[in-house]
Design goal:
single chain; alpha+beta; Endonuclease, Chain A; four-stranded mixed sheet; two-stranded antiparallel ribbon; 6 helices; 18% strand; globular; disordered C terminus
Length: 159
């Protein structure tokens, strides 16, 4: 019960960076995907979660520089649950929002192209592992639903 109360408090008292990123992720605005914010996950609370894609986006302030071991333990547990975690510093969101959104988009877009046990570089050259496999099924909706990918999205799907 305490974790739910903490999550609600975090939603109410979001940082400027969280507010700024949430504007773009909320209400299916980002690639038509549903994101939740300050979502309890086991005994942890994730900043932003897309359950459909098994993706967690974390925004870190200065306090995270002192709690590296805790974050590593937390990330390991979340990865063991099948989630991919992306971490960004608050100042990255405030100063380079488009780059942050592109990093999220690239991570999602590259996911179905990996084979089990394979690793690939995403758009920014960072390594994404096979934990991201299959998380981007939402882009491949049937044509009968009226969803079509713009050519730029199709191009991003190529390695």
């Amino acid at each position: 019960m305490k974790i739910l109360k903490n999550a609600k408090t975090l939603r109410t008292n979001q940082t400027d960076a969280e507010h700024r990123l949430w504007y773009h992720l909320r209400a299916h605005r980002f690639m038509g995907l549903k994101f939740k914010r300050q979502k309890p996950m086991g005994r942890f609370i994730a900043d932003f979660v897309c359950v459909e894609q098994r993706l967690i986006v974390e925004l870190d302030g200065g306090q995270h520089a002192e709690q590296v071991e805790y974050d590593q333990h937390r990330d390991a547990w979340l990865r063991s649950q099948g989630y991919t975690i992306l971490r960004f510093w608050n100042n990255e969101v405030m100063q380079q929002l488009e780059g942050v959104l592109e990093q999220i988009r690239c991570t999602i877009s590259r996911a179905p192209l990996l084979q089990a046990g394979e690793e690939a570089n995403n758009c920014s050259g960072q390594v994404i592992s096979d934990t991201t496999i299959g998380f981007f099924a939402a882009l491949f909706r049937s044509k009968t639903e009226g969803d079509r990918l713009p050519n730029t999205e199709l191009m991003r799907l190529q390695l």
